[in-house]
Write a structure and sequence with these properties.
The protein is an alpha/beta fold. The chain has 11 helices and 13 strands. The protein has a single domain, classed as Glycosidases (TIM Barrel).
Length: about 400
């Protein structure tokens, strides 16, 4: 029975159990006009219809969309979303408000109003890239931390480990070169954040740096700067070929990268498993006009869902062999939930269906549930595309599946 609405709202999630935090990176750039540097689904509609999400192009700010994502993710073992957190440059040195955030809708409009938010942990990854706002010791403690504390950390579903909120940092290189005067000044700022957190009922803070291909001296410096562990936004695998290398080479390459990071310190790195990398939409004339080129986004490679399951299992086996206090014993990361145009996503899509999510469930959970594989449209739920001048799921099927 299809296209008949049997319930008034999305069926409640039936989460799969896992013995660790399975955290997927989340790029909230799919609200009309939110991204700024690209046109969202409008960049994909004509040339990349295979990248259509299973629910069709969607208004990401809609809490009901978020509830579908929570349902799909948790039923396959993903129990935490790590949201990219962007602060606009003009806000530096001033108290933070939501008006000064880029793509803040993913949290403030969608997740925080979702009915199923209790099922999903979340964390923020502070984007410190040059085009976004930096910070300094005073600004971090006096402006950013109070906002994070009251807006995120005190929510019941923020990622807290050992009674310490976890903050991920992207582009530490910029923080180290532009924002803090020295290793000691950054450490001092992070320690001040930890002390502030203690005044708010926590036992400190946990900071994690996005770093891959890390030499030993860089690893040691990051720990000295106050980071508790390191991670990757992706696996760190770079194919030696421009297009479509052998899948077994990809698996070996991802696991080798993980082992190289462990060789720097086997308790201080969390692995990230990547399903594929295909940033073809960013090779367009528009992106070239912005100054981006092929190698800015790496080469093209794919793991089939079956091979993705294998790399997940191997990373878990490697992690399970580590000491009890290793961060990789607590967490594994997934690249990525929804990088639709940059070309790495496990969210349900027209091209892959639920296959990458099934791989995660089979590799990282007890498989003690029965996921619901009916698409929203099959259950009579639609109307999630009110903003995009691009087809919704029904229109997509009529156009492309004749």
């Amino acid at each position: 029975m299809y296209n008949i609405k049997l319930s008034s709202y999305i069926p409640e999630p039936n989460p799969a159990e896992s013995d660790r935090i399975v955290a997927a990176h989340y790029y909230a750039a799919w609200k009309k006009g939110a991204a700024g540097i690209h046109e969202g689904f409008n960049d994909l509609a004509e040339s990349y219809p295979d990248r259509t999400p299973l629910m069709g192009y969607y208004d990401e700010e809609n809490p009901e969309v978020c509830d579908w994502e929570i349902k799909w993710a948790t039923e396959h073992g993903i129990n935490c979303f790590i949201y990219c957190w962007y602060r606009k440059p003009e806000n530096v040195g001033k108290p933070v408000t939501t008006d000064f955030l880029r793509c803040g809708h993913g949290l403030h409009e969608a997740l925080f109003n979702a009915k199923f938010q209790k099922f999903m942990k979340f964390a923020i990854m502070y984007e410190a890239s040059p085009r976004w706002g930096g910070t300094n010791e005073t600004d971090l403690v006096e402006n950013i931390m109070p906002f994070w504390m009251e807006t995120y950390f005190k929510r019941g579903n923020y990622l807290i480990i050992d009674n310490k909120p976890v903050v991920f940092v992207y582009n530490q290189k910029r923080l180290g070169q532009e924002c803090f005067e020295s290793v000691e000044s950054q450490r001092k700022a992070f320690d001040a954040c930890r002390e502030y957190a203690k005044t708010q009922g926590f036992d400190g803070m946990i900071f994690a740096a996005c770093s891959r291909h890390t030499p030993k001296e860089t690893h040691d410096e990051l720990i000295a700067r106050g980071y508790d562990f390191l991670f990757g936004y992706n696996s760190g695998y770079d194919s030696p070929y421009d297009f479509y290398p052998d899948e077994d080479d990809i698996i070996k390459g991802q696991c080798d990268r993980f082992q190289m990071e462990l060789d720097n310190g086997n308790t201080t790195f969390v692995p990230t498993a990547s399903c594929f990398q295909d940033p073809s939409p960013r090779y367009s004339e528009r992106w070239n006009a912005l100054g981006y080129r092929f190698r800015d986004y790496g080469n093209i490679w794919y793991l089939s869902p079956i091979k993705f399951r294998e790399v997940l299992r191997r990373m878990k086996e490697m992690s399970d062999a580590l000491p009890e206090n290793a961060w990789a014993r607590k967490m594994i990361m997934i690249d990525n939930w929804n990088e639709w145009d940059e070309g790495h996503f496990v969210a349900p899509s027209h091209k892959f269906g639920y296959q990458y999510l099934q791989a995660i469930r089979e590799a990282l959970t007890k498989c003690n549930n029965l996921p619901d594989y009916r698409a929203p449209h099959d259950q009579g739920f639609d109307g999630y595309n009110t903003s995009w001048k691009t087809p919704d799921f029904k229109e997509f099927c009529e156009k492309n599946l004749k």
